[in-house]
């Protein structure tokens, strides 16, 4: 991806953006603006850019009408605009209600996809990627990511800066946020196998240097933890405070998570920590709800409440204000398995949303570590 | 905002993007690329665009050094690059570790901000907005949003299409997703009061036409529900299944949510619904975990478990596969208050993430309605 532009619903500005994009790239992918309302201008803009008329496609017209028949609703006349295509364009059948299309200009291939994420994604993988593979001919790009927890972007860079600085093919890039850094290693070669042969030794070198901070496996932290749980037929229960449900939401983001995720006790109030998660009120009184002791008791209470093999927890101060005299960013997480409980304190930073994301990361990573026997 | 471009860490491409942006706009705001690593090229790119050298700023140098002294860590020499500014630029003091700056070219004002969201936001509101207000002189833009639940974007448009089509000042725009549509009404005028006088009658007209689907109040659904709860000194407890914790996460997203949010029982497994949320196992057996009866029992169980005034729940099938013979997108939500329980079934669509977001919307909206006495 060489460039990415966002432009408002204005015909002249969209045409100008298309012109600039077609000058610098061989393929221009446009998303959005294919709906039936008057601010949906992508069809008109691409036709104007090409200097060609719009024509109503008979087959698309039938498809648009069929969607409304299926819903048992009258079709507003404006919806027939969705069957219009610039002359010479090939339709991509609708996944929801909006069809996409692609068309060649003198200099570039233009692809128009709906803005609704899942409609765009289905057309991208079903039609656009094969089309691009065909157009690109031989050659492949392969990327692998290494997930880093417990080291910031600067600290990660200090350890592998020479690899980054001497980079050519493969290249290395950082993507950081929420207490995680992803190091992406990308190579181009004549084939996917050849690209992998360039990527793999660099991935091994980065993993060796980062040691314990590099999470083994690929995917998100929740996916990695989920695979470890499924592999040993184990389940996880959570008790969370400052994260408000985000640990549970992340563990259940992927289909099939019911194989390992039992549930989460979101104990936002202090009384819920004792009454719902069974934390000894004495612990809450002596050490406070934001304490290592509370985190340990929450993890143990979660495992017990759900009858789960692994218990995870996070408690802390999301901010911006302090709580119980503890500053924003204070985070305690814990994990328990087979009667052994481990805990970790970290100092989160950034805004409320980043502090909560860092707490999620710390709890999931502790779960991964305790299953790895660390 | 007239245009928005994303460009990789490549000096030549960044300079080309700056040139195009400065041609079409009076102010160009750049985010990211101000860190200490070699892929941070914004300083060099703006200097190259201006045809001016970079100079090390003595005061910034002291500030960068002070950050590391405070952390008690040695400063890598590369970090001093963060004190370099194009000749003629004015520094914006760092919020985290990266300073920002602004500088005038012949044709435009260029502003460079760090990419870390909260650092960017602090500089934007603290320095950039006042700077732009000063440059813009008289005149104001005012926007208001109307939150719509229970009607899709097309259905909303059918009701107010004539207002959208005759638009000039104010303009109307739709932002849709996760079962919510926001209708944004924006006017420009010589003063904020004059702009508000243009916006307000249109907002009233849109609300009148949309009736019950337009949520009274401003802000997110969680903020609106939170204000209703705080106003009557009430609290809310949640029991959620397919949403995995997202209802709790949304209710606790804003600071101060502990005034009204007690917690959430995320009962992902069927056994957790009875053992943790106290749903009668007979209900789960007869009607299933994905049923209106289960949703009602979950809401009531949540209110009881947390000792909360209001109980909310959502159960359903996030997909992509079916569950208990019910198709992906099946959603039941319920709300309970003072011994009265209401429930709603909706058919979610789109991918797993959108179905979950629609379930969150339905549950929060039911909570809002039951507090409104509906």
Count of individual helical segments of chain A: 12
Low-pLDDT runs of 5+ residues of chain A are none
Task: Please write the string of helix (H) and strand (E) elements of chain A.
Answer: EHEHEHEEEEHEHEEHHEHEHHHEEEH
Amount of helix of chain A: 40-55%
What is the percentage of strand-forming residues of chain A? Answer: 15-25%
The main β sheet of chain A shows up as:
5 strands, mixed
Instruction: State the end-to-end CA separation of chain A.
Output: 40 Å
- Give the quaternary arrangement of the chains: homodimer
Instruction: Please tally the β strands of chain A and state the result.
Output: 15
What does this structure look like?
The structure is a homodimer. Chain A has helices at about 10-25, 40-50, 60-70, 115-135, 155-165, 190-210, 220-230, 245-250, 270-275, 280-285, 290-305, 350-370, and strands at about 5, 25-30, 55, 85, 90, 100-105, 110-115, 140-150, 170-175, 180-190, 235-240, 260-265, 310-315, 330-335, 340-345. Chain A has about 375 residues and is α+β, with helices and mostly antiparallel strands. In chain A, the strands form 4 sheets. Chain A has a 5-stranded mixed beta sheet with strand order 12-11-13-14-15. A 4-stranded mixed beta sheet of chain A has the order 2-7-6-5, with helices on both faces. In chain A, strands 8-10-9 form a 3-stranded antiparallel beta sheet. In chain A, helix 1 packs across helix 2, helix 5 (about 155-165) packs across helix 6 and helix 7 (about 220-230) packs parallel to helix 12. The model of chain A has no long low-confidence stretch (mean pLDDT about 95). The interface between A and B is large, with 80 and 79 residues.
């Amino acid at each position: 991806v060489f460039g990415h532009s966002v432009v408002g619903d204005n015909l002249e500005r969209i045409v100008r953006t298309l012109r600039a994009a077609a000058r610098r790239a061989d393929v221009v992918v446009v998303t959005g603006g294919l709906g039936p309302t008057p601010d949906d201008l992508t069809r008109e803009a691409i036709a104007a850019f090409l200097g060609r008329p719009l024509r109503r496609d008979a087959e698309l017209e039938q498809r648009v009408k069929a969607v409304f028949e299926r819903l048992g609703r009258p079709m507003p006349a404006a919806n027939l605009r969705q069957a219009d295509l610039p002359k010479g364009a090939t339709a991509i059948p609708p996944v929801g209600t909006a069809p996409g299309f692609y068309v060649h200009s003198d200099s570039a291939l233009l692809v128009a996809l709906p803005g609704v994420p899942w409609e765009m994604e289905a057309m991208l993988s079903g039609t656009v990627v094969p089309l691009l593979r065909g157009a690109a001919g031989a050659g492949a790009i392969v990327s692998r990511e290494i997930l880093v927890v417990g080291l910031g972007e600067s600290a990660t860079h200090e350890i592998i800066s020479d690899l980054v600085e001497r980079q050519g093919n493969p290249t290395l890039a950082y993507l950081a946020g929420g207490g995680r850094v992803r190091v992406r290693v990308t190579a181009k070669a004549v084939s996917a196998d050849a690209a992998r042969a360039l990527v793999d030794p660099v991935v091994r070198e980065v993993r060796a240097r980062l040691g314990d901070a590099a999470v083994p496996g690929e995917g998100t932290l929740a996916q990695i933890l989920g695979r470890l749980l499924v592999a040993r037929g184990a389940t996880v229960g959570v008790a969370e405070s400052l994260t408000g449900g985000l640990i549970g939401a992340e563990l259940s983001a992927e289909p099939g998570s019911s194989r390992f995720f039992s549930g989460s006790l979101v104990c936002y109030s202090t009384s819920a920590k004792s009454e719902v998660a069974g934390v000894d009120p004495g612990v809450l009184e002596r050490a406070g709800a934001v304490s290592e002791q509370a985190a340990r008791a929450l993890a143990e209470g979660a495992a017990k409440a759900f009858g789960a093999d692994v218990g995870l927890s996070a408690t802390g101060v999301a901010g911006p204000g302090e709580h119980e005299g503890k500053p924003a960013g204070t985070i305690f997480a814990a994990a328990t398995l087979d009667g052994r409980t481990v805990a970790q304190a970290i100092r989160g930073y950034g805004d409320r949303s980043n502090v909560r994301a860092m707490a999620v990361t710390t709890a999931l990573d502790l779960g991964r570590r305790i299953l790895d026997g660390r």
